[in-house]
Design goal:
Oligomer: single chain
Strand order of the largest sheet: 1-2
Largest sheet: 2 strands, antiparallel
Number of strands: 2
Shape: flat
Strand content: under 5%
Number of helices: 3
Helix content: 40-55%
Length: 138
């Protein structure tokens, strides 16, 4: 641990080695040689300041903490769809039907695109195979 001129302890943030052959989340990191460090969002807060905040039971509302996304793009799409449904349909049953119909339509559209890509790949393969046969026949 390092101490700055103000007497506060500074924690060093080190990224541990990752075991990609692990079968669960806990096994990703070998915790024995690891010096466990606090979360990244607390890196800029000194130990003294953090302890004082905990002891005084003061909320950290005034702190500028790093904002991390806690959801995926799929979550964003669903939120957008539910918002759209609430604008276009009245009543929970109507909104539910709208959402289900939209999701089903998207699924069918996705499947159509996948089928077209598959056909194109097959055609390209057949053309390539014909070209190879032609070249070997020469």
């Amino acid at each position: 641990m390092e101490i700055d001129p103000g007497g506060n302890c500074l924690r060093r943030f080190l990224i541990p080695a990752v075991d990609f052959r692990a079968t669960d989340y806990v096994g990703l990191i070998d915790w024995q040689p690891c010096n466990v460090t606090p979360p990244t969002v607390l890196r800029q807060i000194s130990s003294h300041e953090l302890l004082k905040t905990i002891q005084d039971d003061v909320p950290m509302d005034g702190r500028d903490l790093i904002k991390f996304p806690s959801h995926t793009q799929e979550d964003e799409r669903i939120v957008k769809l539910v918002t759209e449904a609430s604008r276009k349909r009245v009543g929970p049953q109507n909104r539910d039907e709208f959402i289900r119909a939209t999701l089903e339509s998207r699924k069918k559209s996705y499947n159509r695109v996948q089928n077209r890509l598959q056909k194109l790949r097959f055609r390209n393969f057949v053309c390539f195979k014909g070209l190879i046969n032609f070249l070997f026949a020469l």
